[in-house]
UniProtKB/TrEMBL annotation:
The gene is rpmF. InterPro entries: Ribosomal_bL32, Ribosomal_bL32_bact, Ribosomal_zn-bd. This is Large ribosomal subunit protein bL32. GO terms for cellular component: large ribosomal subunit. Pfam families: Ribosomal_L32p. It comes from the Bacteria. Keywords: Ribonucleoprotein, Ribosomal protein. Belongs to the bacterial ribosomal protein bL32 family.
């Protein structure tokens, strides 16, 4: 089968001009004013829409306890 019409480079480039990636939409947290991705929990304070969803203090203390325990067992 023979190609009947060729698309020029300009035609191809014009079509692809809309294919560029955009950056993520960021919102400010109402509690701590840090930037976070929309419809996601704030990674700085752990709140979503004004409510505390995940307790970051608990997870941080649990992680430090695990690190200390691993350090003691490896010695």
């Amino acid at each position: 089968m023979v190609v009947r019409m060729r698309h020029t480079r300009a035609h191809t480039a014009n079509r692809r001009s809309h294919h560029a990636l955009e950056g993520a939409r960021l919102s400010k947290c109402a509690k701590c004013t840090a930037l976070h991705i929309r419809h996601q929990v704030c990674t700085n304070c752990g709140t979503y829409r004004g409510r505390e969803v995940s307790s970051l203090v608990k997870s941080l203390t649990r992680g430090t306890k695990r690190a200390v325990a691993k350090g003691k067992t490896s010695k």
